[in-house]
């Protein structure tokens, strides 16, 4: 399949036409983080096919690719055509042409979601509390409930001591169990701004009577105020609901759906939508791990409601796609739907408690054909081949390579292949996850090079006799193209990076052009009580 070339001007028009389109930026993460179009979805060439299938599950959805103007986007288009995509276009000249046409470029990641957060702050003015005031509350022993809106993995990296990990959506759903006294002030923090703002507004949206505050600038604001962060904490289990509290969640969901005019559907209606070949439809399961295990819905994509709002471009690659948001009582789904609708998606709420005797909707199999993974080999077999001179390519994230690596292995990205291999190479061993390995195999097979997949970790390789270098090594920005370097050390004590990041976040709405601003809808949330 040959891709159509389109100008930056034509591409910009297509993005704002209101139709489904997947705008994929195939550059690596470092380049994406330094600057990309507002609605571009990160889908790096090094992880292209399996990432695209997850982000764009419909074969005939229009795909629009942007690269660096170096020809990689055209190669990506051919690879996606081989997967079964039938409508692929490439912006001629890539990002340089986009900039030359006068179109905006945004640094950072998750930019649409963060921009929505800033718009909401300007529109709804959630009550903020600064670090100094919160610290004085703590010193004085003033009663308050303090929650961290991020997922457990982020919470474990750094937190403010005393904050309990209850991510956005979950706090609203579990509010009566988490904060039984309606007079207790609630403070919500995140790492920066967006999730604190969204968390405070979700509680306002359900009519919470407690005073609710977002910690101004989150953990970064706390650190900038000279207060310490706690690292390595383990999140406690989330508050469990008794039957009466679960019924309160259902009642709040029903009220929110009615007042916000959200669509509520049944499992059969959801299944009909999923079977509609003319629309791209995603089914997200917003329940906890234990809730999903108790009533599984195969094929649904698990996600925390707050993260789906915060990092939508990591889950959905299609503008104006249809999203079915599923949970038990409907509240987590309805709250996520409020914000995702404002991002331009068609949203529907599916509350499984409304159909207790019905199975969840059936998710049809994808017609797309991602690359087939090569055969997996054991660490012992890999070490034997390596001793015979078969080159080993390390496709793991560069952050993992820095902490340890197999003796003789060479770190690589797909775009480096096959050029970094000796000319006579006919076989290679690939260390990495399925997404990176499947992508790299396409380039090796095209060059007539067979590949073996080593899915084991370094410890297993060491047990098989493979020498492992555990000396920590730092990769340069030029080499570690797979990670976002944009103010990357803001959580590691770099105060200037934190200030730059927060200024960037607050300035996002000032970068919007008229069409971009019109792409964001309203979130109907009443005034604070």
Net shape: globular
For the residues shown, what is the average pLDDT?
96
Strands, count: 21
Q: For this structure, what is the CATH homologous superfamily of the largest domain?
A: Rhodanese-like domain
Question: What is the count of DSSP helices, taking H or I runs of 4+ residues?
Answer: 23
Number of structural units classed as domains? 4
| Secondary-structure class | alpha/beta
User: Portion of residues in helices?
Assistant: 25-40%
Describe the structure in brief.
The protein has 529 residues and is α/β, with parallel strands linked by helices. The protein contains 23 helices and 21 strands.
Would you write up a description of this structure?
By secondary structure, the protein is α/β, with parallel strands linked by helices. It has four domains: 4-105, Oxidized Rhodanese, domain 1, CATH 3.40.250.10; 115-235, Oxidized Rhodanese, domain 1, CATH 3.40.250; 256-354, 3-Layer(aba) Sandwich (Oxidized Rhodanese, domain 1), CATH 3.40.250; 379-469, Oxidized Rhodanese, domain 1, CATH 3.40.250. Helix content is 38%, strand content 14%. It has 23 helices and 21 strands. Strand 12, helix 15 (289-294) and strand 13 form a beta-alpha-beta unit. The model has no long low-confidence stretch (mean pLDDT 96).
């Amino acid at each position: 399949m040959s891709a159509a070339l389109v100008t930056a001007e034509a591409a910009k028009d297509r993005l704002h036409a209101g139709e489904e389109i997947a705008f994929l930026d195939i550059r690596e993460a470092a380049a994406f983080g330094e600057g990309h179009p507002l609605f571009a979805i990160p889908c790096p060439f090094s992880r292209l096919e399996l990432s695209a299938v997850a982000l764009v599950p419909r074969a005939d959805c229009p795909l629009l690719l942007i690269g660096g103007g170096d020809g990689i986007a055209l190669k990506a288009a051919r690879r996606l055509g081989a997967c079964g995509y039938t409508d692929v276009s490439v912006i001629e000249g890539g990002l340089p042409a986009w900039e030359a046409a006068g179109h905006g470029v945004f640094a950072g990641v998750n930019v649409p979601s963060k921009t929505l957060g800033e718009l909401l702050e300007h529109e709804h003015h959630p009550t903020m509390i600064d670090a100094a005031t919160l610290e004085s509350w703590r010193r004085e022993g003033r009663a308050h409930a303090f929650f961290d809106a991020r997922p457990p993995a982020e919470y474990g990296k750094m937190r403010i001591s005393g904050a309990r990990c209850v991510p956005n959506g979950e706090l609203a759903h579990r509010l009566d169990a988490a904060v039984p006294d309606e007079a207790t002030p609630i403070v919500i923090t995140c790492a920066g701004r967006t999730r604190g703002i969204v968390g405070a507004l979700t509680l306002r949206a359900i009519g919470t009577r407690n005073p609710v505050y977002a910690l101004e600038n989150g953990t970064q604001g706390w650190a900038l105020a000279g207060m310490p962060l706690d690292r390595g904490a383990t999140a406690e289990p989330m508050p469990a609901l008794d039957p009466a509290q679960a019924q309160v969640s259902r009642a709040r969901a029903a009220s929110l759906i009615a007042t916000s005019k959200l669509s509520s559907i049944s499992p059969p209606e959801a299944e009909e939508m999923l079977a509609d070949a003319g629309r791209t439809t995603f089914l997200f399961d917003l329940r906890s791990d234990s809730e999903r295990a108790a009533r599984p819905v195969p094929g649904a994509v698990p996600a925390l409601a707050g993260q789906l709002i915060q990092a939508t471009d990591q889950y959905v690659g299609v503008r104006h796609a249809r999203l079915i948001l599923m949970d038990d009582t409907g509240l987590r789904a309805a709250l996520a739907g409020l914000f995702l609708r404002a991002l331009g998606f068609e949203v529907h709420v599916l509350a499984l408690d409304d159909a207790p005797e019905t199975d969840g909707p059936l998710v049809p199999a994808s017609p797309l054909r991602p690359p087939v993974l090569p055969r997996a080999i054991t660490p012992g077999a890999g070490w034997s081949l390596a001793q015979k001179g078969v080159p080993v390519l390390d496709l793991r994230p560069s952050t993992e390579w820095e902490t340890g690596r197999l003796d003789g292995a060479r770190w690589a990205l797909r775009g480096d292949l096959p050029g970094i291999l000796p000319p006579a190479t006919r076989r290679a061993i690939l260390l990495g996850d399925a997404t990176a390995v499947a992508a790299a195999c396409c380039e090796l097979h095209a060059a007539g090079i067979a590949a073996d997949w080593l899915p084991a970790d370094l410890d297993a390789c060491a047990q098989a006799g493979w020498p492992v270098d555990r000396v920590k090594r730092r990769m340069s920005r030029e080499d570690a193209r797979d990670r976002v370097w944009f103010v990357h050390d803001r959580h590691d004590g770099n105060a200037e990076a934190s200030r730059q990041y927060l200024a960037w976040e607050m300035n996002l709405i000032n970068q919007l052009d008229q069409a971009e601003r019109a792409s964001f809808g309203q979130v109907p949330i009443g005034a604070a009580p």
